Amino acid sequence: MELIVSRLLKIALATLALSLPALGWAQGKIAVVNLEQAILQTDYAQKQLAAVRNGDDYKADKAEYDKLKDEFDKLVKDFQKDAAVMSPEQQVAARQKLASKQSDLEHVTGKLQKAEQAAGQVLLQEMSPKVQEVLRELIATEGIGLLLQRQSVIHADAGYSITAKVTDKLNQLPAE
């Protein structure tokens, strides 16, 4: 009798253990998405960003950045080469010149970044309704019970990400 009860208990526990994963899947799977990345990787977004980068103001700022970067790199190289034979006053002057050039470089870099960020914000706002539509569709078809923003998650294996699927679906939508 004890042997039968022991076997029945083992069978019941095995059945319970095997059914637990099924109960978890019944509530839907978990996924993560990086909406900004999904939007910015679309064909449309790439065209819009290319248009910004081909604008006259952006090109002028980029040319200025390239020129300043070359000058800065040359100053650093010269300073490293000549520092040992420079007087303390010459070293101070060279460091001040480097700091000034670096400040100019950071200013131009900021202008370039602001132009790209502004275009990115416009894209995010413009495509938001389409993204919501695509997310609703993916949630339904993939059986997603919990969708998290990638930036809010400490760790998620790549298999949990639906970012590429969102980008693909956005690329398939008709252009307006």
UniProtKB/TrEMBL annotation:
Signal peptide annotation: 1-26
Keyword Manganese: no
Keyword presence, Cell inner membrane: no
Record Pfam families: OmpH (PF03938)
Record key words, sorted: Coiled coil, Signal
UniProt family annotation: Belongs to the Skp family.
UniProt-recorded name of the protein: OmpH family outer membrane protein
Organism in which the protein naturally occurs: Parahaliea maris
